[in-house]
Structures are given as C-alpha cells and as structure tokens.
Amino acid sequence: xxxxxxxxxxxxxxxxxxxxxxxxxxxxxxxxxxxxxxxxxxxxxxxxxxxxxxxxxxxxxxxxxxxxxxxxxxxxxxxxxxxxxxxxxxxxxxxxxxxxxxxxxxxxxxxxxxxxxxxxxxxxxxxxxxxxxxxxxxxxxxxxxxxxxxxxxxxxxxxxxxxxxxxxxxxxxxxxxxxxxxxxxxxxxxxxxxxxxxxxxxxxxxxxxxxxxxxxxxxxxxxxxxxxxxxxxxxxxxxxxxxxxxxxxxxxxxxxxxxxxxxxxxxxxxxxxxxxxxxxxxxxxxxxxxxxxxxxxxxxxxxxxxxxxxxxxxxxxxxxxxxxxxxxxxxxxxxxxxxxxxxxxxxxxxxxxxxxxxxxxxxxxxxxxxxxxxxxxxxxxxxxxxxxxxxxxxxxxxxxxxxxxxxxxxxxxxxxxxxxxxxxxxxxxxxxxxxxxxxxxxxxxxxxxxxxxxxxxxxxxxxxxxxxxxxxxxxxxxxxxxxxxxxxxxxxxxxxxxxxxxxxxxxxxxxxxxxxxxxxxxxxxxxxxxxxxxxxxxxxxxxxxxxxxxxxxxxxxxxxxxxxxxxxxxxxxxxxxxxxxxxxxxxxxxxxxxxxxxxxxxxxxxxxxxxxxxxxxxxxxxxxxxxxxxxxxxxxxxxxxxxxxxxxxxxxxxxxxxxxxxxxxxxxxxxxxxxxxxxxxx
Length: 682
Prior knowledge:
By secondary structure, this protein is mainly beta. It is built from 3 helices and 36 strands. The protein has a 30-stranded antiparallel β-sheet that branches. It has a 4-stranded mixed β-sheet with strand order 1-3-4-2. Strands 21-22 form a two-stranded antiparallel sheet. The chain is globular and about 75 Å long. The N terminus is likely disordered.
C-alpha cells in the first residue's frame, strides 16, 4: 500500500460526521468513560476497558536512557508508573475491571507531568477495591512447522492486608514461530545456482513472577515495591536441504540455545515536603544472557563437514536512582528531577571452527569480549501552566552528562554533555476538537552489544564491534489533532518530523570491516491516522471499527555511494484494522482483524537485504462472553495466507565498487494459526 493510499484511507474515516451528533455540553478539559460504557465487551481487566476507548492509541514507554521523562501515555490515579517492567500498561492487565471507577482522557499539557504529549489516559481506581484475581489461558497451534504453544497465559491476584496493597502474578510469555519452503539463489546473469528447502521454527518462553506492594505512609506519604524474576528459554532450529547446480548438494543445520534469567527491583517513596511533594525512585535490573549458536554444513559427496560455533556469555546491568520534587506556584505546576544511571554489559564471546575430525576448535575472535559501561547524570526542570481559552503550555529544560567507555580497552573514556528539553502546547477549542504541538530535543538509546563483534552465522557475515558508537540526538516536532464524531466515533491524525544527528546505521569499520555505527545526519517524517467508527448510527448496533494507518519516510546519506536512501530496517508503512460486532441481546461477538507491517531494507557494505511477512495478516474470531462465567474465544489467524518474503543481494566486495555475486529470494509458507482463549475472574 502506497503512503498516499494510506492517507486517503485515513481521510475517508475522518469526516463521518456530524449528522449523529447532539448539541455539545459545556467545554470540559477531559473526556470521561464509566465502566458501563464497556459492558458490551465483558472486560475482565482494566486493560480490556482501556483498549476499547474510542480513538485512543496506547503508547508503551520508550526504552529511554534511564527512566527519564514520561513517554507512556497511561496513568493510574493520576500517577506515572516509572519502572522498566511494563509500566502502567502491565499493571492494568492485573487489575480486575470491577475495581475501575472511571477512565479519563485528558490533554497531556494539563497534567504537569514532564515528557507527555497529546492524549493521555488516566485510569481512576475505586477507593474500596475488592480482593480478587483473573486468569487467561491462550494456547495456539500452527498448521505447519511450528511446535504447539500450550502454556501461554497468566494468573494474578490482588488484595490488601494490614494496610498493604499487593498483587501477585505469574505469566508465561511464550511465542512460537515457524516457516518453510524454497530459497532460490541466482547468479548475476539470472542463472539458478542453488535451491534450498528450509524448515525453520523457534520457541520462546519467559516465565514472569512478579510481586507488587503498595502502602500509605504517615502524613500523605505512599510507596511501592516491585519484585520481578524471569527465567527464559529461546531455542531455534533451522534446517536447509541444498541442491546446487554444480552437484555439490548437502544440508545446513543451525541451532541456537538461549537459556537465561533476569530480575528487576523497583521501589519508590513519595511524601509531602514544604509546598510540594518529594519522590525518590530506585531501580536495579540484572540479566544473564548466555547464547550458543551452531551451524554445520554437510555434503552428499562425503566431504568433511564444515561448521562454526559462536558462544556469548553476557551480563547486562542497570542501576538508577531518581529524585523528583513537584510543587504549585502562582497557578503553575513545577517539577525538578535529578537522575543518576549506571548501565553495563560484560560480554565474553568465543568463536570456533569445525575441524575434519568433527571437533570445534577455537579460532581468534578479536573484539568478541569486553566490558562497556556508561555513567549518566541528568537534571530537568519542568513548568506547566494554563494560558486560558482552552490553551495549556508545558516547558521542560535541562541536560545530561555521561561518561562512556570500554572498561577493558585501551581507548580513553569519552565524556559528553547534551542539552535536552521540550515545549508542549495543547489547545481544546471546543468539545469536538483538540490539538497538541510538541517540540523536543532528545537523546536516543544505543545497544552496548554493538560495541563488540557479533557474527551472523546464517548470512556468513561478521559485524565488527565499534568502540566509537555514540547515542543519536534529534530535534523533533510532533502534532496531533483529534475530532470527536459524536455517536459515530472519533478520529485523530498525528504528524511528526525528526532531524537526527549521529543516526545509528551500518557503517564502514577499518579497511574492510562493517558494523553498527553513527552517520552524521538523517530525517524522519511520518503521518498516522487513528480512528474509531461506531456503526450504530448506520444501522448496525454493536459494531465498531478501530483503524490505524500510517507511513514514514526516513532518509540518510549512504556512507559508500553518497546517495540518499532509507534508514536501514525502519518501518515505512503500517496498518491495523479491527472490526468487532457484539451481537445485541446476546453474549456472542465476532470480528475480523487485519495488519500490515512493511520494513525498509538493511544496507550492509557487501549486501542489501529486505525481509517482510504478509503483506497482510488477517484473523477471524468468534467469542462467547459467558460460558459458565468464562469468556471463551476461538480464532483462526492468517486466513489469507500471508507469507515470508526475503530478498538479498550479495556483492563480491563493497557494493559501490564490486560486482553482484548472487541474489537470494524467499517466498515461504507460514500457514494458518489457531488460537483458543479462556479468560475468567475469581
């Protein structure tokens, strides 16, 4: 789907008008939804209610440096949930729907919370909350290649004892993937030189055990403690049978084993101090991530096997201390925040080759081991104030200083100071329209893994480590405009433009190496339309369509050719369509969902490859909302046979000065996916 078509589709949803609207009530700074507004959906949790708010798009917290300013557009009782274990969205999935008093949709600039822009959902919980729990079991089965996914689900219980609110939860975050079919390799002149038949499947299981405690202290103080422990497993099986034009047939088997664990401790305490409130936050994250990847080629001719094994034993740490002080003065909200964060990666990497006797023999692997550490300090001041006539203003300013180093290397530590901040303006001229504008200076995140060498066995490509990598910085402008359509629904349009410095992409390293690094400048421009259309005014009560359509144009100058091209691996167009019909006077519902995700190519120095699936994934479901008190749903996924596509061009050397060696094209089967869901409360 072309960007113009996405825009036209979004625009078509925009004007479903006003014929069904009633006389507007007096202007309000918020839109309020009561629990009865969601009764027809039979919600089990607070999250089930939030996802049905018309025209609202949930944004998860950005993986920012440290905790930083708020980015998740969801609050609970007017408070930001500042952690890295899922934030407010994860908390809402553990809160039973019966404990929700109301949901308020407000403009971010009215809240006095630094970092937020556009619409924000504030979930207000009842003062007298009942103890209770909820559970979900959601197995799925694929018709081809993948193993059954039997254990996906969660259970949680919330209660209160001796003045302490608690939530205990256990979740199995499992995933199954599978595909298979031909991989075709053609020479530069188009001659077929090799055909492979692939069978691929991967499994991921993360068992998340979490305890959340909340308590009220003396004089209006309150605090929280979250403990999280998660072991995980991630095996991968990839088998290819190879048929070559030169007769040198054979097989290739690649296996990955990833058996690790991580824990998180997150605590905060807030209390009155002088004219305002003081809040302290502490966070500790630890992740032990051992990976073993093995690839072996066997030959029908009887020649000795060839193989490579890559082992990586990694320890990832993050420690954050943050303090916030907020107060009101002269009709304005003020906040001062200070934060210290220490991030680290300790990687021990090893590479081995298979010898003729079938043993893996270690080989030199420069840059495969090391310790990376960053110590960062941030200070920000935020000022929020209403300007009258439905206009609100928020200004945040400050900066960060950081020390970034390879602890075990011979390069000196690098020290940086980066200013950052934002200006946000919100305007609500009447009950039907709202608009927000945000200008921001932001410092992005980087992966410490890119400081060390990381081989790609399947593509037979070596990504060199880059000790000179720095976080990107950007000037960002975002605008959102929303239009309420009365009984017909709501629609929003978001536009953004980012001017990025030190964009992270694939760069030359040394005389003939390549890896992740920084390019001087890049731009990103995008549009996204989000709409909810209620079909009751059109004569189909109980039916609604939620639609999200968007595209992005991201441009950077190629380090080899000097020409402008897309940023490697960015999402350049997307669509999410969700039609649901709750049949009146019954407990049945049915629906259709469809999704499109399209990505740009990766531009390596010796190859260009693009991977996509679909182009559309379409699912149909039927649901009964009261089967002995349970919600039961059956779904068939990928009914239109979305497939796996891969296009790869490999050159003899650097692609700006070397001939094409071969081109690989995959068009592979994924097949239907059958999902069965049982949800309940207790």
